[in-house]
Amino acid sequence: MAHFSRPKMAHFEKTVDSSFSFFIKPSKEEKAMMLDAIEQDLSRFLPPDVLDVHRQQKYLSFLDAARSLFAELHDKGVCLP
Question: Is 4 helix (H, G, I), strand (E, B) or coil?
């Protein structure tokens, strides 16, 4: 079992919180990054008419799903790698 000194552990906890906050409460820049990634990924899998519906809704269902999932994981104490 790894043992972390307090300074290293504090850095680790801050990094984990930052990872979760990227999805739970993203900055404008982080949200733009997510929207770009969603657009690129979905365009490979969804038909254009379905993609247009999600685009018009500004991908809110996908952003809400990610926020909800990562908030629940954070609340349950799950650590991201």
Answer: coil
54 and 42 in contact (C-beta within 8 Å)? yes
What's the pLDDT tens digit per position in 35-51?
999 999 999 999 999 99
Which of 57, 71, 68, 63 has the alpha carbon at shortest distance from 35?
A: 63
CA distance 48 to 72: 32
Q: Dihedral of the CA atoms 38, 24, 58, 46 (nearest 10)?
A: 30
DSSP 18-38: HHHHHHHS--HHHHHHHHHHH
CA–CA separation, 75 and 31 (whole Å): 21
pTM: 0.69
